Amino acid sequence: MTLKAGVGLGVGLAAVGAGLAVGLVGVSGIGQGFAAASGSASLVKKEEVFSRALVFSVLPETQAIYGLLTAILIMVFLGILGGSASTTAGLAALGAGLAVGLAGSSAIGQGVAAASGVRTYAENPETFGKSLVMSILPETQSIYGLLVAIMTVVAASSLKGANLGAAFAAIGAGLAVGIAGFSGIGQGIAAASGAGALVKDPASFSRSLILSILPETRSIYGLLVAIMVMVLTGLFGGSFHGTVGVGLAAMGAGLAVGLAGLSGVGQGITSAVGIENFVKDPGTFGRSLLFAVFPETQAIYGLLIAILIMMFCGILGGSPSMAMGLAAVGAGIAVGFAGTSGIGQGIAAAGGSKATFESPEAFGRSVVFSILPETQSIYGLLAAILVLLPAIMGSKSLAAAAGLIGIGVGLAVGVAGVSGVGQGIAAAGGSGALIERAETFARSLILSIFPETRAIYGLLIAIMALASTGLLGGGAGPKAPAVAGLATIGAGAAVGLAGFSGVGQGVTSARGAASTTKREEIFSRALVFSVLPETQAIYGLLTAILVLFGLVMV
Length: 554
What we know:
CATH architecture of the domain at 7-211: Up-down Bundle
Helix content: over 70%
CATH class of the domain at 7-211: Mainly Alpha
CATH superfamily of the domain at 7-211: lithium bound rotor ring of v- atpase
Structural class: mainly alpha
Order of helices and strands: HHHHHHHHHHHHHHHHHHHHHHHHHHHH
């Protein structure tokens, strides 16, 4: 096998970018399947709905078209169909593929919304226009991804040589808008509820639209960060001015705002319940909106850290070291992964919204349950700030291992923050218990707190690592030996990944709250069951402590 003359590594990397663009958007078929299945089912009752049901079913196809378009642009401009491309341009093409490919996940939400739109139209043909609007809402995430992908391809076509900083910056922009595009799933869930509400109350459209738009903010934040990274670093003009450290910082900013954008799924769940509530009782709109806003904070934390990274890690000017750039990646991981607790908070807030609708006097206690999963994201925000503190305080360089230590801290606190999903499930169970027996509040609260321990373990390991290496308080890490960086990553992975057990504990605790409501005397035994999934987290904590004491705290 022989390659065409002039084909180098850059063209090969561009081919990977094209593959990601069209391959990742293949998940749009899931959403299209939802919509098409609803269309097929609607024919049983009304055969004449076929043509308009087909319109709804075609909508999720557009994300795949955007992916194909991006792949063709990459092939035309970056040497696959002729010409050549630098290694930097090829790596930048990965950013374009990630931008449009990951954002294509919004088609799943669009399919959910379109399926509801088909059912609503079949029930009442006069709702076609409004149902179509609801179904189109999750399209925007993929449009933002396409926009950034096109900007990246245009920028990449003029990049020469092997500038890893420029390549990393392009990937960071792609991650920012691409991962944030998953918020389209939440928007689709909310929009589906809004479309369904039109059957009972056509006048609910405007207020349903307000709640359905809320998850959109994540993709806007991601688009904002992506454009700022490309413009401020000169990448969009084809004249990147920065070091590898700047490129890594851009990746950190992208991870911060992108991963935190997953909280939009939780917000969509809360918004959907809120729509169901105010359609039954318009007077509940204000409280429904309040509960729906709770999961927004995780996205704001991610945006805040992304802005701090851009301000203090070279994107606005300067030449940060590679260690500083790696620390920015760690900060992005910390606040980004911890932001997934917003999914749990959305589940908890949905439970609180429902409980308040059923029993208005449960409002205050339902708010308490809804706030619980917030703590994981606060820990992630705190860890991110601690990791960035040397840069914020003006340190020009960090110890060689400091960047890796920052990544370890991010893994410890950020990934452990996924336990917030479990806490949200448990808290939703607690809110549900209030409907039947308000006096179960204290016991349900105890059960809901259990999944929190993972985040505490992660924060503990993070502080131990930072303190023992001289990084706590903004130091440059003079005590950090080279091996300390890898050791901290190992410790962070141990305690962070073990935190996923909190999801299982949340399921157990929710069931325990429901059981205790029916038979109060079984609380202690329900407590025993709820404690069982704690062991995995303890094993992760123990391993992390041994690693730190063996290789870092010496």
